[in-house]
Write a structure and sequence with these properties.
The chain is mainly α. The chain has two domains: 2-159, no CATH class; 205-315. The chain is built from eight helices and no strands. Helix 3 packs antiparallel against helix 4, helix 5 (81-103) runs antiparallel to helix 6 (105-242) and helix 6 packs across helix 8.
Length: 317
């Protein structure tokens, strides 16, 4: 009898602690507390009042059967039904034993040894189930902790992922902005480079001006001189043709015409020299897009050799 009430108190404390009824099931926590108080009162009454033991015994049975009913019938205690499987055989056997002892003492005497053996097995069963329940509870708690840790890890990973995405977006925006700024700076540098190249060309053209002007003056002097000579030769030819026919010297006329032709060839040659110099100046001073084009290597070498020569001669005659 005392053992049953102790079991009732232990079961009530187990339910309150394992299921945290004070927070999760406040109404049922009150009921369980009343059951525990009742078990304590019955336990004290059974120990102190011998005359009241028969009545106390049946109240104890009623209390334990009510506890079994709660565990079996209420869905909120579904997780604790293994406790029911643990205590039910012993409680039911105890109730059956007391009923049999009250109704048929002879039959009870006959079955007493069997009932005691079954009670021993019921106690062993209760202990085994209690150990299994504790083991399962610990396993469930470990699994719960593991699940919570995984959930927390997933939450942390998701948070880190979102943070990284934000950082990547910010960094991408910064890199894009820097790229645009660098592109703009590169375009400005290219424009400045083109301007510097053009300025350098014009500066070098200024240095070459003196030498090139002298170079141009030479063919122009030839052109002017041979033009003057041709004018004099033409006057001589006209004067010779105005003479009477018997006084004209055809050989002299032919020589004058030959000299005029030679002078025209020299004028044409030196005119082309001056034209080539001017074209070289224009080619040097013109703006360029920087696009690569096919060129004549021989003409290029000849042009820059002459330009270099004129530049050096402008500095040191």
């Amino acid at each position: 009898m005392i053992f049953e009430l102790i079991i009732a108190i232990i079961i009530v404390r187990y339910l309150q602690k394992s299921m945290n009824t004070k927070t999760n099931l406040p109404n049922w926590n009150i009921v369980l507390t009343y059951i525990m108080y009742a078990a304590v009162i019955l336990l004290v009454s059974y120990a102190l009042f011998h005359a009241a033991r028969p009545v106390t015994k049946w109240f104890s049975h009623a209390l334990l059967l009510y506890l079994i009913y709660i565990l079996y019938n209420e869905k909120v205690f579904k997780e604790a039904r293994q406790v029911l499987l643990a205590i039910a055989p012993f409680i039911l056997l105890s109730v059956f034993s007391d009923i049999l002892q009250l109704t048929d003492k002879n039959q009870y005497s006959t079955l007493k040894s069997l009932i005691d053996s079954l009670a021993g097995f019921a106690i062993l069963w209760m202990i085994a189930m209690w150990l299994i329940t504790n083991k399962q509870k610990k396993a469930l708690e470990k699994e719960k902790i593991k699940t919570q840790a995984e959930a927390e890890q997933k939450t942390i990973m998701a948070s880190m992922k979102d943070e990284l995405e934000v950082q990547v977006a910010q960094r991408t925006a910064e890199l894009t902005k820097q790229k645009e700024e660098l592109q703009h700076t590169l375009e400005e540098l290219k424009a400045t480079q083109s301007q510097l190249i053009q300025s350098e060309k014009m500066a070098s053209l200024g240095e070459l001006t003196a030498g090139i002007a002298h170079e141009i003056q030479n063919p122009l002097n030839f052109v002017n001189n041979f033009s003057d000579v041709n004018a004099e030769l033409i006057d001589e030819l006209n004067a010779e043709r105005l003479k009477p026919k018997d006084e004209r010297d055809e050989q002299l006329e032919n020589e004058i015409l030959k000299d005029i032709k030679e002078n025209e060839q020299k004028i044409n040659h030196h005119g082309k020299r001056a034209d080539a110099i001017v074209k070289g100046m224009l080619q040097h001073s013109r703006k360029s897009s920087g696009q690569k084009e096919p060129t004549d290597i021989n003409a290029l070498c000849d042009e820059y050799l002459r330009l270099s020569y004129h530049g050096l001669r402008a500095k040191d005659k």
